[in-house]
């Protein structure tokens, strides 16, 4: 295999693993501070106690009497009819799926801020999820799926208002997919949203006429919709909690920073991402070069001016737009990402995350930041990419010339080559890395995840209660199982926490008697208590609220995480501290 060919394969690995992301109704209760930090049942015992779901009594009786009538909610936009859904615990909830929150962003509305949905006259039958937004298929192969007519959201609630009941549950918006079966064991209202992705979501010409960040602006409009209408679905809009994973995690962090949305958010959770990560924000000039490349490929002649280029692109079919995006991202070695916009009305992000924190413009709300133990696991990636037979010793030879770009320090340090040499030495030297090329995954994890998440934790802990999570639990619902491999041979990789928070249509749900169900219960216990109280309390089986999760000390030199594993406890992670200190020492000029 030629070096150039292998370089493209390595680039593909990083793409596969998403190095660059394409993006209860009760008053406060006094928690118990146990003498021992963790309740009985946590630790070395083989079974983790699940704790209690915080649910209102009598809910299922109501459903048993009324299930024959479809649930209907009247909003300012019109009547919405949903359906009854049974979740993993056997509980029935109300589901309203495929609710449009914006006009379809097609034709002249392509590459523009979303337009709020106009009212409808007939009953909206919200009984199935709307189309996904157009996107490239993940993993080996190519192609696309979804539609441009995609700006829908889904609402799941255990209770809707009646003449005799006005519930004020906590609304939780997740960015941006998956099912409600696990989380809706608790008394919260879950909202999942669609938003534009890739070229359709982040195209920009670098000017105020087409500033970009359309996908983030879609999310902002969805937040507006929830703030305005969610009370009709049994939730209190003043308690809104935003959370997301990967690109959704970074989006969540951006909303906490943006004055467009941050006054509407009471708490936030970012799983495996933050606005400080390398793959979240790019200079507008990089996105403009990508836009020009796409325009050239579809013969929209950017040399005739920006307005001509944009008008032309609005007339090109979505299939041709995405075909051009596929070629352009390979040629430019970039993907469409959020940018810092000109400071004009309607802008979403106009300053870097660092500047926004320093200027005191970030919402001072409780926050959970989480990461997995091995976000990027190259041993698994080799198998996933289908070239397990490539000689391992050749991998570093192919990678090091690409390191400044793959690790995103090209042009951001005084000398790319010397920085590469420092990285090689820090991670064991060329001889060690040639024999253990999977260690390259740890390098990528440290740069693309740990480094940015550490910054986010440090900055936010200085302004509001902040909690750090280290997810290390290995299970049979992740990538290894997809490849019929033993998950215990690999670390817990990017995205492997999600199947224990949300059910997915392509996977069998975790049953109540499965060994992983205790972790499912633990996570939804902690996250929904965080949403309710602003603190991730653990509700024990005897309904005591226990503080098992310590806040990050903003003055400490090390970060304490709550480890989510068979042994649930507060820990420090020396490898994390060592890695983030090293990457800080390189003085990379990130945004």
Amino- and carboxy-terminal Cα gap: 36 Å
Identify the CATH homologous superfamily.
Alpha/Beta hydrolase fold, catalytic domain
| Main pleated sheet | 11 strands, mixed
Helical segment count: 18
Regions with little confidence, pLDDT below 50 for 5+ residues? 1-50
- Rg: 24 Å
* Structural class by sheet pairing and helices: alpha/beta
User: What is the CATH C-level name?
Assistant: Alpha Beta
What's the arrangement of strands in the largest beta sheet?
Answer: 3-4-8-10-9-11-12-13-14-17-18
CATH topology: Rossmann fold
Shape: globular
The count of β-strands is 18
- In CATH terms, what is the architecture? 3-Layer(aba) Sandwich
Q: For the residues shown, what is the average pLDDT?
A: 85
DSSP helix fraction: 25-40%
User: What proportion of the residues form beta strands (DSSP E)?
Assistant: 5-15%
The structural domain count equals: 1
Provide a descriptive summary of the structure in words.
There is one protein chain. With 591 residues, the chain is α/β, with parallel strands linked by helices. It has one domain: Alpha/Beta hydrolase fold, catalytic domain (Rossmann fold, 3-Layer(aba) Sandwich). Helices cover 32% and strands 13% of the residues. It contains 18 helices and 18 strands. It has an 11-stranded mixed sheet with strand order 3-4-8-10-9-11-12-13-14-17-18. The longest helix has 23 residues. The chain is globular and about 70 Å long. It starts with a helix and ends in a 6-residue tail after the last helix. The N terminus is likely disordered.
């Amino acid at each position: 295999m030629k070096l150039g060919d292998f370089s493209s394969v390595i680039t593909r690995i990083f793409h596969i693993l998403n190095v660059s992301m394409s993006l209860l109704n009760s008053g406060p209760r006094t928690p118990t501070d146990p003498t021992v930090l963790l309740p009985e049942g946590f630790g070395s015992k083989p079974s983790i106690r699940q704790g209690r779901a915080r649910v209102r009594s009598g809910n299922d009786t109501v459903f048993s009497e009324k299930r024959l009538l479809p649930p209907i909610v009247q909003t300012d936009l019109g009547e919405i009819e949903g359906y009854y859904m049974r979740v993993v615990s056997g509980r029935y909830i109300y589901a309203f799926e495929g609710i449009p929150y914006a006009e379809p962003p097609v034709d002249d509305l392509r590459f523009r801020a979303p337009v709020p949905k106009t009212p409808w006259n007939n009953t909206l039958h919200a009984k199935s999820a709307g189309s996904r937004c157009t996107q490239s298929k993940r993993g080996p192969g190519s192609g696309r799926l979804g539609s441009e007519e995609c700006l829908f959201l889904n609402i799941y609630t255990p209770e809707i208002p009646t003449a005799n009941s006005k519930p004020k549950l906590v609304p939780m918006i997740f960015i941006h997919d998956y099912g409600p079966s696990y989380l809706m064991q608790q008394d919260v209202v879950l909202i999942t949203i669609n938003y534009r992705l890739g070229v359709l979501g982040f195209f920009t010409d670098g000017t105020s006429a087409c500033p970009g960040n359309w996908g983030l602006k879609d999310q902002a409009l969805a937040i507006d919709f929830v703030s305005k209408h969610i009370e009709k679905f049994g939730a209190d809009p003043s308690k809104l909690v935003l959370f997301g994973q990967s690109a959704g995690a970074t989006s969540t962090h951006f909303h906490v920073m943006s004055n467009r949305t941050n006054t509407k958010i009471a708490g936030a959770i970012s799983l495996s991402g933050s606005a400080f990560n390398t793959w979240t924000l790019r200079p507008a000039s990089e996105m403009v070069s990508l836009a020009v490349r796409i325009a050239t490929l579809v013969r929209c002649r950017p040399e005739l001016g920006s307005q001509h280029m944009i008008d032309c692109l609005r007339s090109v079919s979505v299939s041709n737009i995405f075909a051009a995006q596929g070629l352009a991202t390979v040629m430019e070695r970039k993907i469409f990402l959020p940018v810092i916009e000109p400071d004009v009305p309607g802008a979403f992000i106009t300053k870097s995350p660092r500047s926004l924190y320093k200027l005191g413009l970030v919402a001072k709300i409780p926050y959970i930041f989480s990461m997995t133990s091995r976000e990027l696991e190259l041993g698994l990636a080799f198998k996933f990419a289908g070239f397990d037979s490539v000689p391992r010793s050749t991998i570093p030879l192919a990678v090091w010339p690409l390191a400044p770009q793959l690790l995103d320090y090209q042009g951001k340090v005084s000398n790319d080559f010397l920085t590469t040499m420092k990285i090689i030495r820090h991670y064991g030297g060329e001889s060690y890395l040639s024999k253990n090329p999977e260690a390259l995954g740890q390098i990528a994890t440290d740069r693309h995840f740990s480094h940015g998440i550490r910054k986010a934790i440090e900055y936010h802990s200085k302004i509001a209660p902040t909690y750090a999570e280290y997810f290390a639990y290995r299970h049979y619902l992740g990538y290894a199982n997809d490849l019929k491999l033993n998950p215990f041979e690999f670390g817990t990789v990017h995205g492997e926490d999600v199947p224990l928070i949300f059910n997915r249509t392509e996977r069998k749900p975790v049953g109540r008697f499965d060994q992983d169900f205790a972790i499912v219960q633990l996570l939804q216990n902690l996250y929904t208590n965080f949403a309710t109280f602003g603190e991730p309390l653990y509700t024990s089986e005897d309904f005591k609220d226990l503080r098992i999760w310590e806040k990050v000390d903003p003055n400490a030199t090390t970060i304490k995480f709550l480890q989510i594993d068979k042994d649930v406890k507060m820990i420090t992670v020396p490898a994390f501290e060592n890695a983030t200190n090293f990457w800080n020492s390189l003085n990379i000029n990130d945004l």
